Every structure is written in C-alpha cells, then in structure tokens.
Amino acid sequence: MRGKRILLIIGGGIAAYKCLELIRLIRKAGGAVSPVLTRAGSQFVTPLAVAALAGEKVHGDLFDLSDEAAMGHIELSRAADLVVVAPATADLMAKMAGGLAGDLASTLLLATDTAVLIAPAMNLRMWQHAATRRNLATLTADGIAVVGPNEGDMACGEYGPGRMAEPGEIFAAISARLGDAGIRGGRLAGRRVIVTSGPTHEPIDPVRYLANRSSGAQGAAIAAALHALGADVVLVSGPATAPLPVGPQIVAVETAQEMLAAVERALPADGAVFAAAVADWRVAGASDKKIKKGGSGTVPALELVENPDILRWVAQLPPGKRPALVVGFAAETDDLVANATAKRAAKGCDWIMANDVSPETGIMGGPENAVTLITADGAEEWPRASKVEVARRLAARIADVLDAEGVA
Ligand code: CTP
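That is the input. Now the predicted structure with cytidine-5'-triphosphate docked in place:
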C-alpha cells in the first residue's frame, strides 16, 4: 500500500461510519486517501472526522471553484491508484451503471480510467431488487470489482445480505487489487501491447455481411489482464458482443482491412496478441446499394477474395519494427497440436494459443477456454478455465518475457 493513493468515495448509508476505520487502516499501511463525501454521506459522518483521519481536505462539491480552476475533479481521479466506493449505496450503483454525472462523486466515477472497487451496502430488499441486480451485472461487466455485501443483522432491523463488508475485508480487497493489478507501475509498466479481438464483418452490401461466432470475450479479457499489469494496451476490436474492458485504448473496426490499418497505426509495440477471429475472405466488389431479390429467382453469386493475414504481416516485420513477442491463436477442430505447431511456423509468430473450437467444447462464444500453448519449446496444455483466468495466465507469461528481455 506504501506510496499508493486511494480515492475514497463515501456514500450516504449508515455503514459510512466504517469508512473511518478503513481510512485508518490504509494510512497505517502507508497509503494516502483522497476523501470524497457525498451530500448524503455527510449526514452519516462529518467532514471534520473524515479530514482528521485522512489528513487531507474532504471534497464534496463539484462546483468548488478553486478546485475547478485546476480541473479539480479530473486531477482527483487521475492522481489515484484505485477508486473505492464505500458504502456503495443502491443510488450510487444506479448512477454508476447509468453513467450519470450530477454530482462530484458520480462525475469522478465517470471521468476516471482508474480501476474501481465498490463495497455495496443497503437494505436487503433493495439489494435483491431487480434494478439493483441489473446495475450490479452492468458494473461487473464494466470491470468494476465488488467486495461484499455480507449477510447479517441490518441497521433497519432485518436480517440478510446487504451489510457492507467490514473495514478489514475492504482493506484486503484494496491490497489485492493494488497487488495483482499493480494498477500503475505493474510488471508491464512502460510496455505497449496491441491486442486484436472479436469477429470481423465483411460487407456484401450496405445491410448484409459475412461474419463468424466470435464474441470477443477472450480478447477483451487479455487486454484487461495486460492493462492490469500496467501495460499500455491498444485493443483493436471487431464488432464484439462481449463488453469491452475499461482501461485499454479501444479502436473499433468492422472489417479485416480496417483491423490491419488500425494495427499498423498502433505500432510500434513491445508485444502483440492476435485473438481476433478475422474473416479469411471478403466479398469482391461489395455492392454500395442493397442487392434486390428482384423476384426473378436468380441468386447472386458472391465472389470471395482473401483478406490480409494481420498476424503473419506483423510477425514477419523486419527486426526493429516487429514487436519482441508476437502471439497468435489457432482455432482448430482436428489435430490441435500438429495443426497449431504448423501454423506457428507458417505465420512466423513466437507463440500460438491453440484452442479446440469443436461445437461440443462450447468454447466459441462460451465463458471458458481450454488452451494449449505452443512455443519454440513445444506444447504446454493448460487446464480448462474461465477466459478471464486464461487471460491472466497469458498476461503473466507475457510479463515474464518482456520483463526478462528488458525490451525497450
Ligand atoms: N489471423 C489474422 N488475420 C487473418 C486471419 C487470421 O491476424 N486474416 C490471426 C488470428 O487472429 C489468429 C491466427 O491468425 O491469431 C490464426 O487464425 P485461424 O483462423 O485459426 O487460422 P487461419 O490462418 O485462418 O487458418 P485456417 O482457417 O486455415 O485454420
């Protein structure tokens, strides 16, 4: 925690009193706290108590002119290594999920690109309400970490889930976030990595296209995991259905040719991971007008031409221009290791993440992946795990190489 700064947003709930102990724990461990007290929060704890424990000014009002002169709210969120919302009330969660920015707390949460951890606290019926369930799902999909709530007696006299996690638990969650994320200054700090992800859409005419079943979940998770290790990540994503991660720079593309152009613009980089399911072919001379059925019974013939192979193009760049580590994927249905090993040689990349995409595996579009990593040293079978876990493991391996080689 030493040297780390936590932006602590204290919402309006009875659990706000627990934040005083949380501030004490963070400061004792060498961290600093920038406190923000919502108007409702200040009904439960006083700015004076918070300021005394934090040893810093308490921020409450978006329209504090002296701060605004120095772009106060942007600065506040930029200076933090982690944003913590405790208690995260049902109202604050709804504002976050909806992207509202009507006060300082919600504006900071919308303006930040720093990782966010929330500690929800509310009456159990509010916690169980369909609206809160929806908001929680949105926030989790946005990459926001959640600690608690716990089950127990509540201030309102009821029993159930909704009690805010204890200060010690929130402190542990903060340490874990700072530790494994490294958030700023992690193992990949100063390293730039390009990730491609998702399917591509190849137009037939203005309303029709060729596509594939890739959701973009694995690529998004890899980009998030690399960002969490401190890398400067550019995620070039086709039209994915999985949510895009918070943190990496996102470049949205449609076609394989646009993806190649975006990758070219994103170079130079220290590493590149090609997780996209790029369409191998596009329609030659796609029509700029909708092709009419016409009623004559004739079927249009679609002539296909090969798309550029983005992975091969990057892997075969001359030394100095080529990223030090180039990782491809091989989606196979038969002879996984043999085909992926041949693909590694043919494309000229350093590693291939080979996965079996036979329909019975449920991998394409599913939440899990089973990967065999092919390197110059051979094949290494990884246990089947969530795509997030596979991404973390890959990011750690990438950090081993880019760290060890001291790549500039
Ligand atoms: N890839 C790419 N550009 C393409 C096609 C593929 O960058 N035009 C990348 C993918 O992102 C992946 C790897 O190449 O990392 C392998 O893709 P895959 O579809 O499995 O292999 P193909 O080269 O298309 O070979 P085949 O379909 O014959 O198995």
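Confidence is low (pLDDT under 50) at residues 180-184.
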